[in-house]
Design a protein that fits this description.
Blueprint (H helix, E strand, L loop, with lengths): L17 E3 L6 E4 L5 E3 L21
Antiparallel strand pairs: 1-2, 2-3
Bound molecules: zinc ion (ZN).
């Protein structure tokens, strides 16, 4: 299994110009907004991946 997860878009500005940060370990930096961020895998969800919304708006 690969520990690396490459983001496709910057979560802050949405730009695609992402580069791996020198700190490594899932760290990326955005060349567009100069932000550095890190991805972390938290684990698999205990529940099933599929979940149907009730559709209630709660109004
Ligand atoms: Zn960005």
């Amino acid at each position: 299994m690969s520990e690396r997860a490459a983001p496709f878009y910057c979560p802050y500005c949405g730009d695609e110009d992402l580069r791996p940060n020198e700190t490594g370990h899932g760290a990326w930096e955005c060349a567009a907004c100069n932000r550095a961020f890190q991805l972390k895998f938290l684990g698999l969800l205990a529940r099933g991946a599929r979940r149907t919304d009730g559709g209630g708006d709660g109004t």
